[in-house]
Design a protein that fits this description.
four-stranded antiparallel sheet, 4% helix, mainly beta, single chain, 1 helix
Length: 122
């Protein structure tokens, strides 16, 4: 059973960086395509990036190269490196596990993490 816990969020000034981590305590992360989403209060949860079991990755165009997803299957962990943060990046960030990129983007998620808050001040 995949059990996801995010960490690494916090309060930062605009222009700074954060690296989020998501660890599977069930130690089955290597079986899944992994993704990152974010949600601001009163807004939809949106897809940001995904990485396959063999480390093929995709990122939405609006990130403009600022965010990078990666994974370390041996450590049962997926990462989101966030650079040049902007106030509009403020949101609750979630990792998710699914069977494929397609299932991640359509909301067919096997497991969600609880979320980690990222707040960017100007």
């Amino acid at each position: 059973q995949v059990q996801l816990v995010e960490s690494g969020g916090g309060l930062v000034q605009a222009g700074n960086s954060l690296r989020l981590s998501c660890t599977d305590s069930g130690r089955t992360l290597s079986r899944y395509a992994m993704g990152w989403f974010r949600q601001a209060p009163g807004k939809d949860r949106i897809f940001l990036a995904a990485i396959s079991t063999n480390k093929i990755s995709t990122h939405i165009d609006s990130l403009k190269g600022r965010f990078t997803i990666s994974r370390d299957n041996a450590k049962n962990t997926v990462f989101l490196q966030m650079n040049s943060l902007k106030p509009e990046d403020t949101a609750l960030y979630y990792c998710a596990a699914a069977r494929s990129f397609s299932l991640l983007q359509t909301g067919q998620i096997e497991s969600w993490g609880q979320g980690t808050q990222v707040t960017v001040s100007s």
